Amino acid sequence: MIIQFKTRLLVLATALSCAVAGVAAAADVKPRLIRFGYGLNEESVQGRAARFLAQELEKVSDGKLKMKTFGSANLGSDEQMQGALAGGAQEMMVGSTAPLAGMVKEFGVFDLPFLFNSEKEADAVLDGPLGQDLMKKLEAKGLVGLVYWENGFRNMTNSKRPITRAEDLQGIKLRVMQNQIALGVFNTLGANAVPMPFSELFTALETRTVDGQENPITTIQSSKFYEVQPFLTITRHVYTPWVVLASKKWWDTLSPDEQKLIRQAAAASRDFERKDSRADSTKAMTTLEQAGMKINTVTPEEVARMRQKVQPVVDKYTQELGPDLVKQLNDEIQKARN
Ligand code: TF8
Description:
Order of helices and strands: HHEHEHEHHEEEHEHEHEEHHEHH
Helix content: 40-55%
Number of domains: 1
Shape: globular
Bound molecules: (2R,3S,4S,5S)-2,3,4,5-tetrahydroxyhexanoic acid
Radius of gyration: 22 Å
């Protein structure tokens, strides 16, 4: 009697633990190797989140979906990787949305300056209807958008002088991302904007091919720009996201179960990355101060002047991107703000 009862309990317990062990065992999941490329180094926010994603994916798939991560643009610049994914030569990547605007112009909305006031507003728009609709547009170009990670609010560094007014940018050769709006914005502010892949940036700064660049604090720290850029100016002029992408050619060969596990791991990586990025930003600022960077913050009055200066660029691209889309964007920001 007792033995029978124990056996039944055991059977029940085994059944339960199988269910908990995850869908992977029962589901249609084959052993696969996924190459995941990114542009920053392994010590960056991007590097940590890539490792998290790889671990998470192994966990949820019971070790079947293995991800190999390649940092420091070892698989190519953001633009090159986008092409490799579209062609089916690489499975996954994370990169900025800015160079994606060359494929799906609507991604340019995130390059419009001085839009978001806080990370919370950015999260709401990216995870809301607008951000999700934009990702769907990628499919026609051979890409599948999974989640947005935080790159963050961008600030300027340079080797010439502190930027206290737009006029201080006169004559500064400033590297920008490969994106029309970024180019327009910085030329209008008075700089000589030079589009260039991130992978070439450190050397360009070191050899003074360019005088400055703009990126979030976390990147200025992890990429060690403080070694070659004495001046940091806090402008928070634009919030740019990163997007985790898959090759559609490859994605379509996966089973629905495999796709579900990848989406699940990607969602977990988004939550991890955003938290990590926000914590790291504060720490990175201290590191930059200790490294001896001369740091200034532009006044709210000067931000208002800069905003006014670039308004023609915003107007021009509002027409090009679609006034309805830009209105939807502003409406979603307002909603998040209230
Ligand atoms: C840039 C971006 C970079 C990313 C990264 C290389 O300045 O801010 O963070 O695109 O993937 O190019």
